[in-house]
Design goal:
With 766 residues, the chain is mainly beta. Strand 26 (591-607) and strand 27 form a beta hairpin. It starts with a helix and ends with a strand. The relative contact order is 0.13.
Length: 766
């Protein structure tokens, strides 16, 4: 614990010191560019004052019957109200990241840009990476419960966990991205380690590919991509919104949201979100109870900007959605069981997260901004944690062992740096110098119980855990620090953008015994460092076309082997991953299309015959991504994407598997959605979404594969002011309309997708 305090003091000192010191056919077209970062300046217009018509000189004055006043008194003019404060300019293309985010693109479902870590707030068209920035409008209209419900709109993102499970684990470009690797306003470790509730989200910023230079080392080592959550801020227009909602089978709740700005120029803002829900959700005889309170305070001055986020999240789940391992030598993959069933009956899961985070920016000049941010999160999990002592066979039979697996983590995360924009001759520069620090203390308690025979279609009651349930014990300390510099140079009136940078990262991890006779003793440690480079280029042969390419490396801290393996507690060495990518982006005015080819290579993490985790050879994912989003026709919004991946094993220990596909990576995926304002009923909109995921192999032997699956979602909403004089929006959605039952997988560990789910809500503005 003293180590935690020392690192915390060091980070505070560092922050304080830093503050002080798809085709090219449209190329000839010239549509309105919806994603230009700079505002167009209109030429000055002079307006002549109207001339008063002269009176006729020959007109004879008529005598008055009453005495004429000596002087005419001018009528009083009513005092003109002061002009309303101007809306804050967008941060996109500036040295700021605190303030109004990038404007929404045509259709409002995605934004024109986002905050891309070390690169700052940048337009999509100026970014040498594949990025998508989902807006709160899309989140609300699809009635997302967590960030995961929105991210699957992109075909390169899939989930390996189902709704009402332990957490939201993502798969981006074929590589796992843990919920612990989701950033909050640019800092790792501050969002919930399980799931991010949709009610606090203003933007979800998705970066595809390794982001070690952009954001630093992800706590759990994600290399497939990065996810950053931008929290809500008070809007210029005050509102109070009350939203009761219902989710099948019998889960109901209430969302209260308020927003208000204060001050002569609305410089102070306060936004509050409170959510309470309870009742059976997607698991039969289960219960999902959740409480959320979130306060966001911000100040926006001429030079100084400041934010503060405080939120507490508490989730209690009875009968949460389980995961299980399949027998790798099985002759057939068992059919997925009923999606509302739980093959580990009577499980309990209690999750708590409390976060405080603040950030500050100050414009030292009109071209130089100093910034700093720091946050702290305290999280804990208490759960019944059954596991398959023997994997599931083709008939669904397995041996289940019941355990308790409780854990906690305390995380301190921060950054400090300078962003600048200046010219040297004919070259423009966007230079950023930054320091980041991350420290996490983690503990756990793994208490094993008895074992019994069971079946996923007819599960047996869980055996008892007879040992005492002790509090989690200190298990590991992780310290991740880095210094980074990046410069985006612009040439030829910003038609060529060259980005070069590097981040030197230091990784220190220590593991401690949680059982046995030497509880608390240091069992393993490593202290390593590495430099990850980045190079990217954007070429704009036309103002609406961006050709780009990048080379990026990711650095992953070593895996701490979990309690299910024979080498539990061992810290594996950190490793690097490498990405090459090239693509084209075309903004057609109200529709943007993108195409990208990529390759990501990293060491493979396998489970050996001795049930130990280890690295083995290399996994190389090569792929093609196609995306479209925007306003297809007036009143018709849409987005569509397709991803094709070849996840090849290039250097396995077993030579017979060379060239085989990695386990659990689908070869293709598609996502497509439409949202339509009906012309015959004012205020009525209909929407639909199709999600398809292709087949994936059970093991690297490539003898068995999971079948592909397709999910259909539909919905409608109706907005009216006839009831209260203020907007009232009714929403109804059905997810998995056809009730498909399918496996979600990363290989041997699987779960089932959510069943048909009904979502109803009514948002009342006051």
């Amino acid at each position: 614990m003293s180590n935690f305090k020392n690192n915390k003091n060091r980070l505070y000192l560092g922050v304080a010191a830093g503050v002080v010191t798809a085709t090219v056919a449209s190329l000839s077209a010239s549509p309105v560019r919806a994603q230009e970062a700079e505002r167009r300046v209109l030429p000055p217009v002079s307006v002549d004052a109207p001339q008063q018509r002269a009176r006729s000189a020959t007109r004879t004055a008529q005598p008055r019957a009453t005495p004429q006043r000596a002087a005419r008194v001018a009528p009083r003019r009513a005092a003109e109200p002061p002009p309303p404060p101007a809306a804050p300019p967008t941060t996109m293309g500036s040295t700021r990241t605190i303030g109004a985010p990038a404007p929404a693109y045509a259709g409002g479902q995605v934004a024109q840009g986002g905050t891309l870590g070390l690169l700052g707030s940048t337009s999509v068209m100026n970014t040498p990476f594949s990025t998508v920035n989902f807006t709160s409008q899309l989140i609300q209209d699809q009635q997302a419960r967590t960030a995961a419900d929105t991210l699957i709109n992109d075909s390169s993102v899939r989930l390996s966990t189902g709704s009402d499970g332990f957490d939201d684990t993502f798969v981006i470009r074929g590589f796992a991205v843990s919920a612990t690797d989701v950033g909050l306003n640019g800092l790792y470790g501050l969002a919930s380690s399980q799931r991010v509730p949709a009610q606090i989200i203003e933007r979800i910023e998705l970066l595809k590919g390794p982001g070690a230079l952009i954001n630093g080392i992800a706590p759990s080592g994600a290399i497939g991509g990065g996810i950053n959550i931008v929290t809500k801020r008070a809007t210029d227009e005050p509102f109070l919104r009350l939203t009761p909602f219902f989710m099948s089978a019998a889960n109901y709740g209430l969302h209260l949201e308020t927003s208000q700005r204060f001050g002569a120029n609305k410089e102070w803002g306060v936004r509050f979100n409170g959510v309470g829900r309870n009742g059976e959700a997607s698991i039969r005889d289960g219960n999902f109870q959740s409480g959320l309170g979130a306060v966001a305070i911000d100040y926006r001055g001429d030079r100084l900007r400041w934010t503060l986020d405080l939120f507490s999240q508490n989730d209690n789940t009875d009968n949460f959605r389980p995961q299980i391992s399949l027998l790798p030598t099985a002759t057939a993959i068992p059919a997925p069981p009923d999606a509302r069933s739980n093959w580990y009956p009577d499980t309990r899961l209690r999750q708590k997260d409390n976060t405080a985070a603040t950030a500050l920016e100050y414009d030292l000049t009109n071209w130089l901004t100093a910034y700093a941010g720091v946050g702290y999160r305290d999280g804990s999990n208490y759960q019944t944690f059954p596991r398959s002592a023997t994997a599931v066979d083709a008939l669904g039979n397995f041996q289940v062992q019941n355990t308790y697996y409780d854990s906690y983590s305390k995380t301190l995360s921060g950054n400090v740096g300078f962003r600048s924009r200046f010219d040297t001759g004919f070259i423009g520069h966007k230079l950023n110098v930054a320091y980041t620090g991350f420290f996490q203390e983690a503990g756990n308690a793994y208490i094993q119980g008895g074992t019994t025979a069971s079946n996923i279609y007819n599960p047996a009651p869980l055996p008892a855990v007879t040992l005492d349930r002790y509090s989690p014990r200190h298990a590991s300390d992780s310290t991740l620090t880095s210094v980074a510099v990046v410069d985006t140079m612009s040439f030829l009136n910003e038609s060529v953008l060259l980005t070069l940078g590097g981040r030197h990262q230091m990784v220190k991890q220590e593991s401690y015994a949680t059982t046995g006779t030497n509880i608390g003793a240091l069992t393993s440690t490593y202290d390593a460092s590495a430099t990850t480079p980045l190079a990217g280029i954007v070429v704009k042969p036309w103002t609406n076309v961006s050709l780009y390419a990048n080379y990026a490396e990711g650095l992953t801290r070593g895996t701490i082997v979990g309690g299910n393996f024979s080498n539990a507690g061992t810290i594996l060495a950190p490793y690097k991953s490498k990405q090459q990518e090239a693509g084209v982006k075309v903004d057609w005015g109200t529709i943007t299309t993108t195409a990208a080819v990529f390759q990501i290579a990293r060491p493979s993490l396998i489970t050996t015959a001795a049930n130990a985790q280890a690295y083995d050879g290399e996994q190389r994912n090569r792929g093609l991504e196609l995306n479209l989003y925007g306003l297809i026709l007036p009143g018709l919004r849409g987005m569509a994407s397709a991803t094709f991946i070849n996840p090849e094993l290039t250097n396995p220990t077993d030579p017979t598997q060379r060239g085989n596909a990695a386990a659990g990576v689908p070869d293709k995926a598609f996502s497509a959605g439409l949202d339509w304002d009906t012309p015959w009923v004012r205020g009525l909109a209909l929407n639909g979404r199709v999600i398809h995921t292709g087949s994936a192999y059970l093991t690297t032997a490539n003898t068995l594969s999971f079948p592909g699956w397709t999910r259909l979602d539909i919905g409608a909403r109706y907005t009216t002011t006839a009831l209260t004089g203020k907007p009232v929006t009714f929403r109804a959605n059905i997810e998995n309309v056809t009730g498909e039952t399918y496996w979600l997988t990363t290989g041997t560990y699987v779960t089932v997708g959510a069943p048909r789910t009904y979502l109803l809500s009514a948002a009342f503005d006051f």
